[in-house]
């Protein structure tokens, strides 16, 4: 989504609030964009930054031109006065915020404006959050901070109270699927991307990357292993899965794909075939329906969710996956 008009189709309320603040020149010094993954928070942050530095801006419009030097540099992540901050490892650390604080004291390289965008703001350590408060309590009129989070309940109240909150609502899965199909992505894959709450940029990136296609094959192979008591799921985990899924976020994505499998089996048991996501795997799903009870499928989803929690709490990837495979194969 490269314009506010496009974003407005998916997030009308959030987009209207931001557009009004831009056109009326009443921007807050700090925003908190919160809502589920893939709902447009990053797109809104990018558009806000582009509009702030656009060299061909229409003062009566909220739209950036998208073509000037500043807009192109922001889109490519190379503008010196727009800073993106993401977790290093599991969290945003105090040292990262201290670096930003130093940047706050400098005059902008090309103007007096600065925009700071913090992804996954709920993952700030307590020390990092307390450091950030200094900036939020003593804002510069030409500096804007945008915090993004999927878990607003984990953000400190002292930070919440100093930000203008903009809520991004969960998108309709059918609308997302149609959006991906219109970009030339096959329906079967579009269904999966929508179920995983990918935004359009993520869907296109994964569609062009062979890693995701291979990940889907490995997930299917692991399902076949754990569903057959004669197969060695544990051995497959070490020989294949752990070679492909290496980073924590990759394991989480693999688990999300596994969850889709068991949720589809549950849908078959409940005779809700209209909810099936893995439409290209119907034959397998029908087969598994007769070898796995509804209760067993629900228990597997529970184990998968527990594994995601363990990974979030820094349990070693291999240990977490070994435990999971043993539970799924029982």
Automatic annotation (TrEMBL):
SUPFAM superfamilies in alphabetical order: P-loop containing nucleoside triphosphate hydrolases
Keyword Nucleotidyltransferase: yes
Top-level class of the enzyme under EC nomenclature: transferase
One Pfam assignment: DNA_pol3_delta2
InterPro entries, alphabetized: DNA_pol_HolB (IPR004622), DNA_Rep/Repair_Clamp_Loader (IPR050238), P-loop_NTPase (IPR027417)
EC number: 2.7.7.7
Annotated keywords: Nucleotidyltransferase, Transferase
MF terms (GO), sorted A to Z: DNA-directed DNA polymerase activity
UniProt name for this protein: DNA polymerase-3 subunit delta
Gene source species: Alkalibacillus salilacus
């Amino acid at each position: 989504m490269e314009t506010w008009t496009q974003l407005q189709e998916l997030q009308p309320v959030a987009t209207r609030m931001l557009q009004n603040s831009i056109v009326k020149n009443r921007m807050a010094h700090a925003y908190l964009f919160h809502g589920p993954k893939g709902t447009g928070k990053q797109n809104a942050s990018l558009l806000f930054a582009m509009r702030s530095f656009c060299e061909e801006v229409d003062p009566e419009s909220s739209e950036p031109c998208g073509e000037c030097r500043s807009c192109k540099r922001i889109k490519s992540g190379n503008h010196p006065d727009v800073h993106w901050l993401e977790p290093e490892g599991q969290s945003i650390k105090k040292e990262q915020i201290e670096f930003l604080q130093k940047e706050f004291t400098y005059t902008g390289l090309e103007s007096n404006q600065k925009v700071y965008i913090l992804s996954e703001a709920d993952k700030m350590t307590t020390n990092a959050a307390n450091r950030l408060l200094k900036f939020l309590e003593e804002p510069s009129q030409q500096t804007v901070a945008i915090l993004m989070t999927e878990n607003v309940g984990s953000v400190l109240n002292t930070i919440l109270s100093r930000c203008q909150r903009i809520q991004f609502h969960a998108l309709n899965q059918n609308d997302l699927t149609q959006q991906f199909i219109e970009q030339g992505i096959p329906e079967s894959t579009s269904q999966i991307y929508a179920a995983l709450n990918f935004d359009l940029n993520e869907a296109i990136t994964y569609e062009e990357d062979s890693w995701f296609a291979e990940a889907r094959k490995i997930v299917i192979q692991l399902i076949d292993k754990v569903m057959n008591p004669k197969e060695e799921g544990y051995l497959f985990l070490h020989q294949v899965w752990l070679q492909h899924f290496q980073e924590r976020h990759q394991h989480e994505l693999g688990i999300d794909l596994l969850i889709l499998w068991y949720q589809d089996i549950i849908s078959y048991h409940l005779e809700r075939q209209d909810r099936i996501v893995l439409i290209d795997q119907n034959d397998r799903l029908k087969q598994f329906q007769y070898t796995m009870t509804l209760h067993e499928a629900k228990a597997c989803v529970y184990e998968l969710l527990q594994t995601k929690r363990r990974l979030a709490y820094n349990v070693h990837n291999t240990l977490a996956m070994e435990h999971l495979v043993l539970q799924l194969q029982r």
